[in-house]
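Lab meeting prep.
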Amino acid sequence: MRFFLGTNVLISAYFWHGAERKLLWECLRGSHECCISDYLVYELRKVLLGKFSLPGESIERYLSLLTAFLVLIKTENGPEVSRDPKDNPILWACAKGDVDALVTGDGDLLSLRDRDKMLCIKDRCFKVLRTREVLE
């Protein structure tokens, strides 16, 4: 499967030994094709530096690992879908990157999915899943 890993999934994978890290390792080993976007890299850098006060060198090492092993999607503009404008570039990247699922813990993004856990943007549909739903 082709997954887009959300910011909170990648932050959890960095700090904790839970389901998010397990999924990231599966992606790094090639069990899944996983994607991130240039916008997500920017957002991840900002959060790790501002909220978690990580040293810049540690952040850059993590981002280098991610960009070396995951598919990087260039973010383009699209329709306003989420009530949180910061989520829209993530959704646009998922649609552009032809992913099977967005993996996230973000409540705003999870609220957009239908009863089948699907979200459609223009003519592209993909699942919106929690990490545990992927690993089940």
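Slide two material, second protein:
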Amino acid sequence: MTLRRDFVVGAVLIALAIAMIWGAQGFPRIRAMPYGPDLFPKIIAGGLIVSALGIILEGIRDIRSGRIDDSAGRDRITTLAALSFVGIVALVAGFALLLPVLGFHVAAALVLLCAVRIFGGNWVLAGIMALSAPVVLHYIFYSLMRVVLPWGVLAPYAW
């Protein structure tokens, strides 16, 4: 990418993150907990800011190192990006449909397995992510934040 395109993408992400932080300020506080519903939008916004700065810095580094945006292969990259976008949208929709039926653990594992493969990860990495991430997320939501996640088909094994 060119520096200009990287700067625009980075600036849009930073603006989105600032809007998220500003919007989260109005969320009501919960007295029983040291954090409120504004915590996760702020964490996501922080990740967006870090990602945006990374995109901008990578564009600057590419210009300084002499790597200029060449048009060779641009059509292939655009097609892959479009397919990745469609795949992620389909995964989000599939997760929303499968969550009530299969439960969080199975639906998250299937979505993660597919997402890692869509972005070029191998089967071993996809399997590790699909098996470990739902367990870690369950611990965070259920044990730390006391948010009940649907068990679905694993309800007989719920703890």
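Talking points for slide two:
The helical segments are 3-24, 39-65, 74-102, 104-118, 123-144.
The first helix runs from residue 3 to 24.
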